[in-house]
Amino acid sequence: MGPVEFIVLAFPEEQLRVRAVASLGALRRSGAVALIDALVVTKTAGGEVLTAELDEFEELQGMLGGRDATRLIGPEDVTESAGLLDRGNCALLVLVEHLWAAEAAEEVRAAGGRIAGSVRIPPERLAEVKAGLAALAASAPSPSPSPSSSLSSSPSSSPSTGTEA
């Protein structure tokens, strides 16, 4: 089995934007992920928390493989996820298996290893880091070429065999 992840996709309205979650169906069909379970959670303008199965949405029926799908998202998950929502918002809670990583995970386990940790880097943070690196590169003076800065700087240099100490 590949890594499994619980994801909360929040939307700024009480109605789930089916078009916005259609990409999950495409990922499932491509074999990149398996949708293990999913649930729609709505926090009404009055603060009431409501839940709905995907099959209750005509456009999302069958995404989980029918009524026989395993229901693993529980009341605690709903409560915690609803705490992330503003009133008048909804979220799609999904439990996905990353099938694309399953083979690698199997090989790691077969070698006696284990996945010891995993961290999801938010896209906003990655963009900040990239911008910071670009600013740093732009402010750094250009290095002038020097004979010692290149592995093949002299005509007499030969390719490395990897045997040097």
Count of helical regions: 4
Give the strand content: 15-25%
Mean pLDDT: 80
Pairing-aware structural class of the strands and helices? alpha+beta
Instruction: Determine the fraction of residues in helical runs and give it as a percent range.
Output: 25-40%
Q: Work out the radius of gyration.
A: 24 Å
- Kindly state the number of beta strands: 4
The description of the largest β-sheet is: 4 strands, antiparallel
Q: Stretches where pLDDT falls below 50 for ≥5 residues? A: 146-165
Order of the strands making up the biggest sheet: 1-4-2-3
- Give the overall shape: globular
Element-by-element helix/strand order = EHEEHEHH
Distance between the termini: 42 Å
Tell me what the structure shows.
This protein is globular. It is α+β, with helices and mostly antiparallel strands. The protein has helices at residues 18-30, 75-82, 102-110, 123-139, and strands at residues 4-11, 33-43, 49-52, 89-98. The protein starts with a strand and ends in a 26-residue tail after the last helix. The chain has a 4-stranded antiparallel beta sheet with strand order 1-4-2-3, with helices on both faces. The longest helix is centred in the last third of the chain and has 17 residues, at 123-139.
Attribute tags:
alpha+beta; 165 residues; four-stranded antiparallel beta sheet
What does this entry show, briefly?
The chain has 165 residues and is α+β, with helices and mostly antiparallel strands. The chain has helices at 18-30, 75-82, 102-110, 123-139; strands at residues 4-11, 33-43, 49-52, 89-98.
